[in-house]
Design a protein that fits this description.
mainly alpha, two-stranded antiparallel sheet, 10 helices, CL004 protein, Fy-3
């Protein structure tokens, strides 16, 4: 809780310390104001120096001073608490107003120190998914994700076809205009047509972007609800229909339409495996596998549903919410974006993969950009202070 900002009542009390020095019986009396805000160690050292006290009483004086300040402080707190309770009992303080103040202070403290809650995703989803992927329902989960992937892939294919047709039509229009340039048309006419083409492309891209976002959001919501419901039903031993529900036959799987040539061809990989033994007495064995392949092949959700592909996805899914993780380092330029090169290809792959376990790539990149800007500003201010 935040400290009370009201006025603190100060009281003065005499601290009395008695000690013997040879045949003399001495008494040290020091007035102290409570609450004591000074560091007790500093106060003790100041008393020793100002009163020329002998060194043999140093430790005993410090213990006695600590005990006196602690006891008197507790008495003050008890007295203030009794007065506050009496004020509430007598009606001098509105108990409802006091409760509101406490509730507000508690809420502010919780918001300041507690981790933000994720309201859009069930907080138990990780445990639920981990349980299901290690159960007979694992194949059902992978099949459902595959069907979602096929739907998104078909949408992306339709988008690419429409954009390609639009660019071809615009290219033909621009060729005709360029042929008439200097005859019946001017540079202004060419610029006007180019602006219209750009606006048309932007409108079409925005339309498909919104449609993909909406479809992905619906799939994610359906997937979450289905996973939670399946987990709850599996806990019910009397539900006999679940065993039939989780048996998805291969014929039930949707296959993607490959009419437009968007096929990920699996090239023959060049690979070699090694076994390395390290250590003279206590040997350790490591397996090393070298292969030449497209980096994005490890990220792509394969369109065909062969057993080898499914086993690879199952292995990844089983370790997803565990302490045994694996990753891929993709070498890109130093610009945080997904507009060109392999970054654009990777963004397309991420858009197709409907795993629903992580935020979208654009959302993650926006977070990275904010962190980079903060780090850059911090380094800049730090270098200015040094200069």
């Amino acid at each position: 809780m935040k400290p009370n900002k009201g006025k603190t009542c100060t009281r003065e009390r005499d601290y009395v310390y008695k000690f013997n020095a040879g045949n003399q019986h001495l008494v040290l009396t020091v007035p102290l104001k409570f609450p004591v805000e000074e560091n007790i160690s500093h106060l003790h050292g100041r008393l020793m120096l100002l009163h020329n006290l002998p060194c043999f009483i140093e430790n005993d004086l410090k213990q006695s001073l600590n005990k006196f300040i602690e006891e008197e402080t507790i008495k003050d707190y008890d007295r203030e608490a009794e007065m506050a309770l009496e004020a509430v009992k007598s009606g001098k303080v509105d108990i409802n107003q006091l409760a509101d103040i406490w509730a507000k202070a508690y809420k502010e403290t919780m918001l300041e120190y507690a981790k933000p809650e994720e309201t859009s995703w069930d907080e138990d989803f990780a445990d639920v998914y981990h349980d299901l992927i290690h159960s007979p329902a694992s194949e059902t989960l992978l099949n459902l994700e595959h069907n979602y992937f096929v739907s998104i892939s078909e949408l992306i294919s339709e988008r690419d076809v429409e954009l390609k047709k639009l660019r071809e039509r615009q290219g033909a229009e621009m060729d005709k205009v360029m042929q008439e340039l200097g005859k019946s048309l001017t540079d202004q006419d060419v610029n006007s047509l180019a602006a219209q083409h750009f606006e048309s492309q932007q409108d079409l891209e925005n339309k498909w972007t919104n449609e993909l976002k909406q479809s992905t959001a619906i799939q994610k919501q359906e997937y979450q609800e289905w996973v939670i419901k399946l987990h709850q039903d599996l806990k019910n031993p009397n539900n006999s229909s679940i065993s039939d529900e989780i048996k998805v036959q291969p014929s039930q799987l949707r296959e993607s339409v490959e009419g437009n040539g968007r096929i990920y061809e699996e090239q023959r990989l060049l690979e070699e495996s090694f076994t390395i033994h390290l250590g003279a007495q206590l040997k350790t064995m490591h397996n090393l596998r070298l292969l030449r392949a497209d980096m994005l092949d490890f990220c792509k959700h394969k369109r065909n549903h062969r057993s080898g592909v499914k086993l690879h996805r199952l292995q990844t899914a089983m370790s997803l919410y565990s302490t045994s993780l694996c990753g891929l380092v993709l070498l890109v330029d130093n610009r945080v974006s997904s507009y060109s090169g392999i970054k654009r290809d990777f963004a397309t792959v991420c858009q197709e993969c409907t795993d629903f376990h992580f935020p979208g790539i654009q959302e993650q990149l926006e977070i990275v950009q904010k962190v980079v800007l903060k780090a850059r500003a911090h380094r800049s201010s730090k270098s200015k202070r040094h200069h």
